[in-house]
Structures are given as C-alpha cells and as structure tokens.
Automatic annotation (TrEMBL):
<dbReference type="GO" id="GO:0030003">
    <property type="term" value="P:intracellular monoatomic cation homeostasis"/>
</dbReference>
<protein>
    <recommendedName>
        <fullName>Multiple inositol polyphosphate phosphatase 1</fullName>
        <ecNumber>3.1.3.62</ecNumber>
        <ecNumber>3.1.3.80</ecNumber>
    </recommendedName>
</protein>
<keyword id="KW-0325">Glycoprotein</keyword>
<feature type="disulfide bond">
    <location>
        <begin position="287"/>
        <end position="301"/>
    </location>
</feature>
<dbReference type="InterPro" id="IPR029033">
    <property type="entry name" value="His_PPase_superfam"/>
</dbReference>
<feature type="signal peptide">
    <location>
        <begin position="1"/>
        <end position="30"/>
    </location>
</feature>
<dbReference type="GO" id="GO:0004446">
    <property type="term" value="F:inositol hexakisphosphate phosphatase activity"/>
</dbReference>
<dbReference type="Pfam" id="PF00328">
    <property type="entry name" value="His_Phos_2"/>
</dbReference>
<dbReference type="GO" id="GO:0005615">
    <property type="term" value="C:extracellular space"/>
</dbReference>
<dbReference type="GO" id="GO:0046030">
    <property type="term" value="F:inositol trisphosphate phosphatase activity"/>
</dbReference>
<dbReference type="InterPro" id="IPR000560">
    <property type="entry name" value="His_Pase_clade-2"/>
</dbReference>
<dbReference type="GO" id="GO:0016312">
    <property type="term" value="F:inositol bisphosphate phosphatase activity"/>
</dbReference>
<comment type="similarity">
    <text>Belongs to the histidine acid phosphatase family. MINPP1 subfamily.</text>
</comment>
<dbReference type="GO" id="GO:0034417">
    <property type="term" value="F:bisphosphoglycerate 3-phosphatase activity"/>
</dbReference>
<feature type="disulfide bond">
    <location>
        <begin position="77"/>
        <end position="421"/>
    </location>
</feature>
<dbReference type="InterPro" id="IPR016274">
    <property type="entry name" value="Histidine_acid_Pase_euk"/>
</dbReference>
<dbReference type="GO" id="GO:0005788">
    <property type="term" value="C:endoplasmic reticulum lumen"/>
</dbReference>
Amino acid sequence: MLRGPGSRLRVTVAPAAALAVALLSSVSHCSHPEQKDREVLPLSSYFGTKTRYEDAIYKDAHSEEPRQDLYLLEEACTPVQLVALIRHGTRYPTAKQIRKLRQLHDLLQARRAGNNRADAGGGRDLGAALADWPLWYEDWVDGQLVEKGRQDMRQLALRLASLFPTLFSRENYGRLQLVTSSKHRCVESSVAFLNALWQHCYPELPLPDVKEMECGPPRINDKLMRFFDHCEKFSSEVENNDTALYHVEAFKTGPEMQDILKKVAATLQVPVNSLNADLIQVAFFTCSFDLAIKGVKSPWCDVFDTDDGKVLEYLNDLKQYWKRGYGYAINSRSSCGLFQDIFQHLDKAVEQKKRSQPVSSPVILQFGHAETLLPLLSLMGYFKDKEPLTAYNYKEQINRKFRSGLIVPYASNLVFVLYHCKNAQTPKEEFQVQMLLNEKVLPLAHSQETVSLYEDLKNHYKDILQSCHTSQECKLPKVNNTSDEL
C-alpha cells in the first residue's frame, strides 16, 4: 500500500485478476492482441517512434499479459474529469521514406541483374530476396492511417471506457470534447476513437455519421496540437537550422553506424559507397512498417540483429532528443500553451465541482503526434538523463531514460485524471490528480509519488502555468540592423 502526498490519500495496488477485468473489456475486440496473433521480433522494441503500441506496453517482447502495475484510487475518490493527449495510430510511411526505400530497392534489383547468381557459398542470397520482395507502398499513402491504426484507437477507447466507466458513460457521450491536428491520420484516429465509444455506449443502435453524433465531429486546432508549426523561434533555430541536428549527422558518420554500413553492404553484396546512413535507417524502418501494418516479418528484418537495432534506435532517439526533447529549450517551451490548456480544463472542472455544478466536459480527448507529446513530457521534466544524448556517448547512454519507442509509440497517450475526494474524518474536500502514460501510472517527476493534490501539482508547475507565454517564448530576438556608416 502506498501513500499519496502528506499521507492523506491511500493508493492501493489492484490485484492482478481485478485489474485484468478492468483493462480487458467484456467486448472481445477490446483486449490487446493475443501473443499468438502477433509476430514478435527481437528487433520489435528498437523501432523508436515507429514502435507498435503493444510492443511498448507489454512487460517484454515475449509476454502475453499487459502490464499489471496500475494503481487505482480507493473508493473515497471519484473521477470527475479525464483529459487525454493521444498520438495517432499506426500509419503508412511518408512519401520521403518511400522514395528512399525505392532507391534502395532499385539498387538491389540492379545488383541482381548484374550478378544474377546466389552468393559464393551457395546459401541464401538476402539481396536477391529483397529485390524480389514487393514494395507495398506508393507515394500517395504518405503517412496516412492504416486499418491497424484504427484498431489501435478502437481498442484504446474501449479500454479507457472500461477503466473509467463513470466518465465514459452513455449520459456523458454528448459532452465529449474532441480536438485534433489537421493531419489526416489524426482526424481519422479521432473518428475511430469516437466511433468505438458510440458502439460502447449505444450497442443497440447503428453507427451514425460523425457529423450527426450528439457530441459533434472532432474540432481541428493546429495551434494547439501542432504548436511547433506556429513557433517562429523553433522554426528558425531548430526546424530550419542546418546545425541544430549536428549530433544526429555526426552519429551517422561515427564508428557505430559505419560498422553497420559495412556489414549491410557485405550482406546485400553491394558497394559500401552505394549506401548511407539514411538508406540503412529506411531499411530498418521498412522492417517495422511491414510488421506494424501487415503483421509480417519481411526479409528486411533479416538484415539486422539486436546490436544493430540498438544503434539504429539511438540514431532515432538522437533526432527526437535534439529536435523535440531536451536538446534545445524552445522544443519544450513551445508546448506551454498546450500544457496550460490542459490545466484550464482541470481548473474549470474543479470550480464547477466546488459550486456543486455538473462538470461540463467530463472527457477531453486531444489527438496529435509524437512531436506533440515529446515536447510536453520534456516540459514536465520526464525521461531526462543526467547527461545529454550526443553522437559520442552511445555506450554510456545504453541504459538511458529517453527511449522514444517506450515513450511515444503509435497510439501513445498521456492521460490526466482529476479526482474529487472526501475525507471520512473531516468534511474537507480535496482534488487529486493522477497521470497515466500508455495506460501505466506515471509517477510525478519531482516526487515519484503516484498521485498528487491538484494544488500541489499546480504549485510545482507554477512557472509554466504563470510565466510561460507561447507568444513570447516563440518570438525571435530582434536583430539590430542599424549601421554606423554614413
């Protein structure tokens, strides 16, 4: 049994059987995929932001059970509001990635045409197998949501509804608030989530068009969900700055990546100078796309072993660290508006509850990107290593906290749950907050407690809530253009 701040609220560990009931809905398609239904690879946990959700939330790659370490508040507390920030589900590769894959595929086909024989040992010619392996992806799919991504959303919706039935009730359906990025994959994710909730609340009714639902269609708000596109300082100093990703580019030419480059060239029987780190990375990601989208282990997976996977994961994490995480202050400070928006919802719910009014928005769902979640988590102080990730400390960072595949896989979600608590000894009311990341309770970054008084949490983040103004944070410093010349 754990105690919350000031030992005023007890938190109990749900028994494994009870938790399984809570997490696995009686609706059969609410559960996670069974182990027998999914291909599990040694590489599965190294795909960074291209990681399948189920590979991030299972205890390990060979576990058939979801994590069972969720702490549930006792009956003295009632959930009154849930605010969730959700990454879109599994998607297709982008057109840029597809063009790189086509370049590599053309290289292998040209090599086979010029060689037209098995390898010298008479064994399996992996390069020839890859030349024959179909290219599933056309440029037009360009990052769109796949059916597996819709399934990610439906399953997440039903699990959250099962975990918080009073919030996701039939009576509350019309008061749902959904906000989404304008990107098609996010809009489609929000609709799939909403449809699953409709079927959960109204199983006896046909599914209507989203525009006809009582809560209305999801609302697009890119200033909130794609704040990085509206931050001039981020665009200038990071997004469009050739030197901002110095450590990413340096690692590409460093010894770890060069060893993989030589190894892959030998495996595929192509000149080493015909390959580069970008082509190696897209080959690795193609293994992940085939696995996530089609559920198949393609020959691209046979090109790499787990040591290669760890290096390529680090390359991906370096990019996320320097472009979305702790690399530059503006990465996280640009998300202040989103952070404040979450607390404005919570503030409103607290005030309404204090006045004995019904909470106007019991559930707020916001659909965005890995690039939405990572800056926000960095702003809150999560997954920060003692030393920065650089091109030169790969071995020292092998056990790093900042592993994007465990933090923001497809369908990743950060959930704030506001509870109204009544103390049996006194008439005093309290409001408590828990945070869940990918359906696992996220201990507070500053205290490692699993629950906080709402006012204590606000006090800890008062600098962000009071002093971080996106318009000022994102404003470029003025350049003095005055001249002394006459």
